[in-house]
Each structure stands twice: as C-alpha cells, then as structure tokens.
Amino acid sequence: MLRRLSVIAVAGGLFLMPAGMRLAWAGDASAGKTVFTNVCSICHSVQPGQNKIGPSLFGLVGRKTGSVPGYSYSPANEAANLTWDEATLDKYLQGPRAMIPGTKMTYGGLKDATKRADLIAYLATLK
Amino acid sequence: MKHKIARNGVSCARDAFLIGGLAAAILAPIRPVAAQTAIQHPLPHALEIQQKETQEQLEVLSKHKAPVGPAAAHVLGLYRQHAEQERAYILPPLTLLPYLAEGKINPAMAWALPMLERTRAEKEAIFNQHTEIADALNALSQAGIASHDRFAKEFAESALADDLNDLEILEPTLALIEETLHAKLPAAH
To answer: CB under 8 Å, gap of 24 or more: what pairs does B62-65 form?
Structure first.
C-alpha cells in the first residue's frame, strides 16, 4: 500500500513539474563539451560575464535573446524576443541567420543532429 | 653598335630599324593584352595596408607544418577572393567619408553608387563568405592549438574579430554613404 502511494506521489509530482523542467536532456553533455570546444569556443566563453566575439553562454538556457549585459547585439538579435530552450537552440544552431535574419553570428550551422543535441545538453549545464 | 651601322648605307638603315625595333621590344614594359579600361578607385590607405598585412601573415602561416600550413592555406584562398571583391567595389566608396563628414557632396561622387548598390544587393552572399572565412579561421585556431602554434591561434582569433568589424561597422557605414548620396546628389542619380 505504502509503495503504491509513493509511486502515485512520484508520478503526481512529475505530472505537476513545470513544462520547462527536464529530468534529462536528449544529448550527451560530455560529448557536447567537445563540440563546444571545437566549434564554439573561438567566439564564446562559458564563464559568467566574459564576452568574447560572441556573448558569454553561461546561463544561456532559459534566458531571452539579446540579454547578456555589456554585449553589443545586432538589432535583429535584440528584437528577436525568444527564449533559449532545447527547441529554439536546435533550430538556431542549424542555421542562425535563417532563424534570426540579420544576426551577426558568422556561423553556417551545425548540421549533425546528434552533435547539436550533445551541444545543447552541454549548454544546459552552464549555470 | 652605332659606329658599325654607320659604315654601310641602306643595309645599315635596315639594321638600325631592326635593332631599334628589337631594343624597343625588349625595353618596353610588358603590357597585358586587355589594358585596364575601368578606372580603379583606391581604397582608404589604412585598409590597403591591413589587407596586405593579413595576406602576408597568412602566406607565412601557410608554410608552417601541417595541420597549421594547410589550414592557413585554406583561409588564404578564401581571403584572397574576398579581398579582391573588397578592392573592386566594396571598399572604394569609403574614400568619400572624409568629404561627406564635412558636408561636401558633388555630382562626381556618383561613381560610388553602383558599387554601393551592388554591395547591398550581395549582402547575404557576402555574409556567407564571412561565414566560410570564420569556419576556416576556427579550423586554423584548432590547428594552432593542436600544434602548440601560438602565432596561428592568435592570428585566427584576431582575424575573426576583424571579420566581425565588417558586419558591425563596414556594412552600416556603406549603407549610410549610399543613403547620403541618394539623398543629396542631384536628381539624375
């Protein structure tokens, strides 16, 4: 009886969990760190407050586009009014300029879906 | 040679003609078959120097051992193509800036309009070139890291910042020049 109640309680808790919360990301964060190093690190830092050619990606997941203090965004990025989550990041990383026309991010896109998922899983750890 | 020719009359004259013609052919500068017909407008001198220095540094890096050498050679190839376009029509209108800044506009500046309009029309294609160059610079940076080649890594990072300069500063500046010329040149333009 007690065990059944605890299963129900856990299931209920999961059901009530906010939609944005996840127990696990689809990708492999450890592999994603390698993707980040090879593809993103020349322009982006993962340290809070450290902008390079691109803004710091610390705290990326869950924040609004164009919101890192001290970074000069393109007008397009500032006006995009999107929240970075798995879906928006997945679309953006396939082709930044296709999703936000006028962005100054000079990156053609990461076409490999697995690498994108891994990268996004890694980016989600930056908090 | 002169005093040998003086001895015989007609044959000397013929020889002189032939020798003179040969000398002229040897001494005259070699000219391309299609002479340059379009007026080539200069660039701001600072950008000319910058282009030259970037190219020279890439040429040096291209001679480094793999993986840096091939990575640098790839950047160099892309850069040369882009630089040629810059010299041909993207950058020359910038030479008007000092005059425009002083409010000096005259009809002779109309030469810049086709260049500016072309740059605007090709905006996305030019952005794609920057994207390719950025990818290639990233590969050069990674090659530098793998080879402990600090010069390659630092060059790539610095060049990437310059690449961003084109998007943040050059592109809007050219748009402003075009807008100013359209607004202030006589109606024919």
So the answer is: B64/B147, B64/B149, B64/B152, B65/B147
